[in-house]
Amino acid sequence: MAADTAVAPSPEETLESLLREVEALKQKLEEERQKLNDASLSFVAERLETINFPTLKLRRMLKGHQAKVLCADWSPDKRHIVSSSQDGKLIIWDAFTATKELTIPMPSTWVMACAYAPSGNMVAAGGLDNKVTVFPLGGEEEPAARKRTVATHTSYMSACLFPNTDRQLLTASGDGTCALWDVESGQLLQSFQAHAADVMALDLAPTDMGDAFVSGGCDRAVLVWDMRSGHAVQAFDTHLSDVNSVRYHPSGDSVASGSDDSSCRLFDLRADREVARYAKDSLLFGVNSVDWSVSGRLLFAGCSDYTASAWDALRAVRVGTLTGHEHRVTRVALSPDGTALATASWDSTLRLWA
Amino acid sequence: MDMMVSTLQQQRAVTEQLRREAAIRRVPVSVAVADIVRYINEHDQEDCLLVGFSSQKVNPFREKSSCTVL
User: Which of A36, A55, A84, A199 could form a cystine bridge with A114, CB 3.0-4.6 A?
Assistant: First the structure.
């Protein structure tokens, strides 16, 4: 890119010249984006045939946590779920039978993030302890006896994921940074710094390359990162409050976000702008988590009003509401084969819908 | 003086960030939107939560039948 050759600091750069350039660049960005804004998703969607959305039913209830469930992730085997809670426990569930298979104690309460490794043989979790710890599953010994601390931030850990490999871990933190770690050595491989406040969410691009990811934070920004260079390559800043969740569309070309401003938004990466907004005047509570159905037609949103909503992503209308949780829904997660949606809540339960 | 240097460095980082953002290639929204719609149309038949299950037998989370064959 031409811009990269211009980044070497030149002696004549002053604060004033930089500020002037920032203003000019912002204006140029806005003009470029506006120039290409020749259509709208909802207008295109209006001409599509209507579909009858099936009603999702409650199929399973997972009870076992003693306090708020803060995060959950599916195993690649499509059957197991790991969940983490304010009670300081990690639970491995058999989702088919709705039974607890394993309870793993964590060093602190408020375990805000947990994730399954792609092999299914390992889980990672962390939270107020500012660390991510990995636990190998299976084998004779207790997972807790074989735990290994991989990542350490200077503030709480808000999200973690394995970037298509068991050997690396990507984390987001309240210290405003994301980081890539080597699982074996615990070494920091790359730090990602551009958020101006706590980073709350992460998602990996659904390409085989796995070289891009997206993050959202309390600076209201959604940032797209190049994992190799460590640079943020795109920024979307239309949300009015904290961004709590980000999720790539299955096509990989756009990203959905959920925010405390009670809306979800769709940002197209190639058009470089917001292309849809999922909000209603009657919805006043924050969106804590978003996930897509297999085709990317349905966007699920877990909200602080105790419900999860299903939105028609094209027409931007709400087509279903999952009610039953007795407190905030903190997480919505589609099973890997798309046959069920898991919801986690402050009411200490997880529920499965299909 | 240190303060000024660090402010300048911060501002430089912000400017560099914007230079990168301004340099990316974009497609018209109409093209992006058409591709989103196409992707969804190509995959909607695989989407159990959208079109339902071809048979409840393939739903791993279906209700267990209350009648069992003895």
Answer: A84
